[in-house]
Amino acid sequence: xxxxxxxxxxxxxxxxxxxxxxxxxxxxxxxxxxxxxxxxxxxxxxxxxxxxxxxxxxxxxxxxxxxxxxxxxxxxxxxxxxxxxxxxxxxxxxxxxxxxxxxxxxxxxxxxxxxxxxxxxxxxxxxxxxxxxxxxxxxxxxxxxxxxxxxxxxxxxxxxxxxxxxxxxxxxxxxxxxxxxxxxxxxxxxxxxxxxxxxxxxxxxxxxxxxxxxxxxxxxxxxxxxxxxxxxxxxxxxxxxxxxxxxxxxxxxxxxxxxxxxxxxxxxxxxxxxxxxxxxxxxxxxxxxxxxxxxxxxxxxxxxxxxxxxxxxxxxxxxxxxxxxxxxxxxxxxxxxxxxxxxxxxxxxxxxxxxxxxxxxxxxxxxxxxxxxxxxxxxxxxxxxxxxxxxxxxxxxxxxxxxxxxxxxxxxxxxxxxxxxxxxxxxxxxxxxxxxxxxxxxxxxxxxxxxxxxxxxxxxxxxxxxxxxxxxxxxxxxxxxxxxxxxxxxxxxxxxxxxxxxxxxxxxxxxxxxxxxxxxxxxxxxxxxxxxxxxxxxxxxxxxxxxxxxxxxxxxxxxxxxxxxxxxxxxxxxxxxxxxxxxxxxxxxx
Length: 590
Fold this sequence. Notes:
By secondary structure, the protein is an alpha+beta fold. The protein has helices at about 5, 10-45, 45-80, 85-115, 130-140, 145-150, 155-160, 165-185, 190-215, 230-265, 265-305, 305-335, 335-340, 350-360, 365-380, 385-410, 415-440, 445-450, 470-485, 490-515, 545-550, 565-570, and strands at about 465-470, 525-530, 535-540, 575-580, 585-590. A 5-stranded antiparallel β-sheet has the order 1-2-3-5-4, with helices on one face.
């Protein structure tokens, strides 16, 4: 078995390369809260900050819808990509956008009526804050449709290797949001309505920049209303619902916590929590980006029944993502006072002290959350719905709301912060307990911690993994494939053909793909013996290279040009090529 560093190097490099992009995309929503909080604290007042805090549960509810639809669609697309079923990927894309538009329209109508008719007593009974909250809510509903739709598109742009489009949309949104806040709040004095309107108009720009890529015909995915497979719509909702339940529970949790703060601390507590929470949402974009990177890799691994890559993704989470999040959390804690100074300047004010403690305590739960989020995603993908529902219920409402209610009389404002940390500890303990219960002993390795079924994929003796980093190693591929096939009792003809195909394709990638740039590349080869088939999979991180297109290229002056690729197509019973997340993936069956 290969070491972690060798086996997971390509996957680790890919995930770390995609991470900044996904973090930036996840931070877009957080920027809205930070900008709004800054202008509210400096140009409108503490009550305006309270209105922003009261909108938090609504934002989480709409976010739960986004999570359900984008999470379910991404996981389903990953499964179909793992099976190379492009028609179903197209169906999922179209249905995802249609269902998203429907949900966004319903939310827009509901919250617009609540704001216009003053039906918001469920959020606050404070007569000074509620009128501000109503105006803020009316301004925010203008941006619900682009918010929901805009959060669906980044995953598809990543599949199309068009991450730069998402980055551009994010940067444009940030700039537009700041400019409009200056115009509406600082110059035109529209107060809380101006705060919300600036965010909403910025979200329309964010969505438009992304959507233009699909409308221009530059992508393989198109919005097609014909030949939709409606069962995929049900699958999107079914797969995405458990993960979204956690965010939905968080919305209810937010209402409960706001009520506890209003009763035992006062509206100043809501303002302090809103300030610390809104800024921390920017840093929460890091775990969200980590999850976005891992989600498609997890679903692809499940679709391919790739046991090794599946566990590699979780190892990378523990060995790369969690330590990274610990460092970020430590930095936030050390900068608690400067971060508080962004919103409140007077250290003698209670709201200042409460916000400082928020920045000192809340970051402690971030590394724990990275673990919980990944296991919820894995549970969604692999069908462990019981674990997903339990974690969603605990993380979403029971732990935070329960611990807050138990501690708030004694600890006041800090009870809410401490409850979030205790929540992370409990959820990680539940993950470990679930594994111990299912395995009937303490897990000894990652596969046991994940409780991967014995019949998932193929056993180690039915596969061989080979890593190729130069032409010298290509020469050993044929020998190792031949030895594997003979051990498995495969007939001589197919043994010869399999070894020939692997050596030819690996040599072609090294000769042409490795020389296109100065980056270090490697090839991950897997040979699987399953159901009497020999399945050959080659994965590399070179520039996109479709052998189907190269096979058709001939040169009258050089009849041997691309002859090796043509021979492979003649030998193999099926040849399937995909470029996913910047990886070339070629699968052959002999």
